[in-house]
Amino acid sequence: MYPAPFEYHVPSTVAEAVSLLGKWQDDAKLISGSQSLIPMMKLRLVQPKHVIDLRKVPGLAGVSESDGALLIGALTTYRAIETSEIARSRLPILPETAGNIGDAQVRNLGTIGGSLAHADPSADWPAVTVALDASVKIAGPRGERTVPVEQLISGPLSTVLEPSEILVQVRIPLPGARSGSAYEKLPNPASRFAVVGVAAAVTLDAKGAVQRARVALTGLGPKVSRAASVEQALQGKPTSPDSLESAASRAAEGLELRADATGSTAAIGNRRRGGDLPDRAAISESMAASPRFSPPRI
């Protein structure tokens, strides 16, 4: 199916793009990597009268390090993150995640900013960025503001972005000493979206106990969620197989679970029970990435 007719705009600056959004409001859609908007337009699930292409705006792509954080332009492709030497040396979870998204075409076109702004409940980047305590820079008619990713996504395919605002950058603070992070998912065999995905970021104290843990889940609920019960169960605990097993078993506590395509309660139960499998793997791998730790065999 073909999209409904629309006008195509190619701004050369962020300010120009913001101005176009302000002019057309809900009749306009931004395009960055085309991996979400174009399929929805072809199915006529969305029918914007104006499409604003950000790909000619300079300065919106690239990975750099500044003031104790990695800065990733919103239009940075998954492939660029996968091959970034800075990301690989400073936060290996990022290229590892990027390399397991979709196929080669998706990785060469899809962008991290587009993924976060689209807010698919089964996407990988929301969980990873929430676990890493990332924030996004947003440009709008009143200037720029910064929002934690955890607060950015308000529901399925919904964010706190105003109609005339643009997500322009992702900021990820670099972890301190004795820290590690990992992302594991059970992928849909066709789309590679996460049926269940878990990102974990852990910092150990000098004695090897968990000093800080952030665990984020995707695929289970209507939006990315923190696994607060898992984090609490890990706090102050030694990195033993028993403590990991106990913490992972609480992965779905307090979460609002959504049905799968069949809508069956049995499917929800299966996903609830299966959620602790990538959870244990992600936590174990994040600890394995931390110095002074030998990963348990679980």
Write out key terms for the chains shown:
298 residues, alpha+beta, globular
Account of the 3D structure:
By secondary structure, the chain is of the alpha+beta class. It is 32% helix and 26% strand. It contains 13 helices and 14 strands. A 5-stranded antiparallel β-sheet has the order 4-5-10-6-7. Strand 6 and strand 7 form a beta hairpin.
Protein topology:
Blueprint: E1 7-9, H1 14-24, E2 28-31, H2 37-42, E3 50-53, E4 63-66, E5 69-73, H3 78-82, H4 85-90, H5 93-98, H6 104-109, H7 112-118, H8 125-131, E6 135-140, E7 143-148, H9 149-152, E8 153-155, E9 158-159, E10 166-173, E11 179-187, E12 194-204, E13 210-218, E14 225-226, H10 228-234, H11 241-248, H12 265-274, H13 276-288
The residue fraction in helices comes out at 25-40%
Give start-end ranges of low-pLDDT stretches.
261-268, 271-275, 292-298
Strand order of the largest sheet: 4-5-10-6-7
Structure class = alpha+beta
Number of strands: 14
What does the largest sheet look like? Answer: 5 strands, antiparallel
Question: What's a concise summary of this model?
Answer:
This protein has 298 residues and is an alpha+beta fold. It has helices at residues 14-24, 37-42, 78-82, 85-90, 93-98, 104-109, 112-118, 125-131, 149-152, 228-234, 241-248, 265-274, 276-288; strands at residues 7-9, 28-31, 50-53, 63-66, 69-73, 135-140, 143-148, 153-155, 158-159, 166-173, 179-187, 194-204, 210-218, 225-226.
